[in-house]
Specification:
single chain; 2 domains; two-stranded antiparallel ribbon; 2 strands
Amino acid sequence: MSLSTEDQLRFANDADAMFSSSSGIDPRINAWDLSSDVFQYSSDRVQFCQNAMANLMDRMVDDGESYHEFRRGFFRLMWDQASGLSAVVRYVGGVEIDRNLHGQKENGQPHTPVSYQQQKKAVEMMSKYAFSPNSFSVSRDNYAHLQPQRRGWDFWSGTEDPKILQQIGSFQRMLLSHIMHPNTLSRMNNSRRYGNSYSVIVMLRDVTSGIFDSDLGGAVNPLRQNLQQSYVDGLIAGLKSVSYDAITKSALFYQLESIQTKLEKKKGKQMETKAHRAYMMHKIDEALDADS
């Protein structure tokens, strides 16, 4: 017991694991992370997967073979990027736990909020690797070869064309779901009473900036259109939900007003972008009018 406080002997089991936003509070106890520095590991993993995509066809497909193994490898690499980022995003709103007994560890405390720097870095990594205009993007040639091998009547249950926007969108929504989860935002508010300095409104401001600012002056690509619509839908749903406290709802409301101001100034010149922003403005206007 005298050695159990040493960092090298830290231990936790599945009951403590932060498998989802609904369970666990300590992001250090997680699947998809066997490193001592999740930020560096995840960044390296994303870079590795992107580099592997460059010559995936040459390594996975021989003459006379179908593209099925290439397709499996492609989605494996995509999932590896998303799973690494899912370990990082847990640091937003995280609280480190310490189960040492009273007097066993000098200056120890059971609950310590994740530092401002780490939470901020987690949001910055989401903006760079998950929410940017180039997130999860690969060459058009790779997309065009995502053909599953037909076995019998496989395609009766659906069409075989690659659902690229839906797949990447599911990864982005998975990461956003933790950021927007009532547990995450409530914990950020509560933990300010014992050390957290990254407020919900500042965190959401950073997320909004990462999702909107980089293409505000130009055309919005289809991936970002879906992401921006999903984010706005999440903000609106939060305003209507009874699961969020008043502090959080104020922050959600403020972000909708902030996005509204951005879009009023930048309606876009390209037809598709104009339509996309007009639809978002319509949803925001309805939500704010209904909330007033």
